[in-house]
Structures are given as C-alpha cells and as structure tokens.
C-alpha cells in the first residue's frame, strides 16, 4: 500500500461536485488519509506549481488555483499514484477517457477539476505542503 496526493480544484468545488468526486475516489478503492478545505493565495499556488514556472500558462494557473476553495487530500491504495492518474484521466478533458473524473467534471485544460501527483516522490512533497504529520493518519 502506498500514497498519492490530490486536490479537488476551484471549478469543481464551486460547482458543488466535491461529494460526487470523493464518492468516485472511495468507490475506486482509495482510503482518505487526510482531507480539508482551504483557499490558496496566488503566491502559495505559485509555490505548489513552481515546476511549471517557465510555462506560458503559469500566471493563469496561479490565478485560477487561488480563485476559490480547494479540497486537498492524501489517499492510500496499492499502486496509488498510477491508479489515481488513470481514475482522473488526461489533463485536457477533451482527451480524457469515458468515466474518468476529468471527463465527467472538468471544464477545460486549465479548470480540470482535480490534481493527481505524478510520482511517489512528488506525492510525499505535495502531501507535506498541505498537511502536518499529525494530520496524516
Ligand atoms: P495536475 O494533476 O494538476 O498536475 O495535472 P497534470 O499532471 O495532468 O498536468 P500538468 O502537471 O502538465 O499541468 C498542471 C496543471 O496546469 C493542469 O492540471 C492544468 O490545470 C494546467 N495546465 C496544463 N496545461 C495547460 C495549458 O496548456 N493551458 C492552461 N491554461 N493550463 C494548463
Ligand atoms: Mg502534473
């Protein structure tokens, strides 16, 4: 068993899709290790997505990710990182497979409903960005 990190993004939270998305996550066999609802500042969103600093969409991404509340979570399952990326689908919802969270709930390549860590190493870094050790159980 291992862990991944996710956050339900501002578009999905604002539209009232938090519960439906969490239901899909639990039905896919993930256990919620940590969960909360927060709003990032643009600066803090920029720190989270620092890897994309040189990309043309970086400023838009920081504005979008700080535009409303998000729901970050740490999740546990065997093969968590890869299985969660499969559950959420492609970055661009137009290319996401049927039945994936992004196919069902994403609005655009930017407002794409949900994040999923891309490696075990980043899952740990990203989970620790939002949750203190005593919150991870
Ligand atoms: P995350 O799980 O959020 O990391 O998505 P990803 O791994 O599928 O995509 P990536 O890490 O490449 O991009 C991070 C986020 O930047 C995406 O989820 C989108 O919200 C946004 N993004 C990616 N590509 C584009 C783009 O071409 N234009 C815009 N406006 N936003 C983009
Ligand atoms: Mg990514």
UniProtKB/TrEMBL annotation:
Coarse class of the protein's main subcellular location = cytoplasm
Summarize where ATP binds, as residue positions: 9, 57, 85, 91, 102, 112
GO MF terms, alphabetically ordered:
kinase activity
Q: What class of enzyme is it?
A: transferase
Keyword Zinc attributed: no
Keyword Nucleotide-binding assigned to the entry: answer is yes
**SMART domains reported in the protein's UniProt record:** NDK
Source domain of life: Bacteria
Alphabetical keyword list = ATP-binding, Cytoplasm, Kinase, Magnesium, Metal-binding, Nucleotide metabolism, Nucleotide-binding, Phosphoprotein, Transferase
Compartment list: Cytoplasm
Name the needed cofactors: Mg(2+)
Q: What is its EC number?
A: 2.7.4.6
The record's active-site residues are 115 (pros-phosphohistidine intermediate)
All copies of the Nucleoside diphosphate kinase-like domain together span: 1-135
- What Pfam families does this protein's entry cite? NDK
Record's catalysed reaction(s) = a ribonucleoside 5'-diphosphate + ATP = a ribonucleoside 5'-triphosphate + ADP; a 2'-deoxyribonucleoside 5'-diphosphate + ATP = a 2'-deoxyribonucleoside 5'-triphosphate + ADP
- Task performed by this protein: Major role in the synthesis of nucleoside triphosphates other than ATP. The ATP gamma phosphate is transferred to the NDP beta phosphate via a ping-pong mechanism, using a phosphorylated active-site intermediate.
**What family does the database annotate?**
Belongs to the NDK family.
Write down the HAMAP family for this protein, in alphabetical order. NDP_kinase (MF_00451)
Q: How does it assemble?
A: Homotetramer.
Q: What name has this protein been given in UniProt?
A: Nucleoside diphosphate kinase
Organism this protein belongs to: Nibrella saemangeumensis
State the organism's lineage: Bacteria, Pseudomonadati, Bacteroidota, Cytophagia, Cytophagales
The gene is ndk
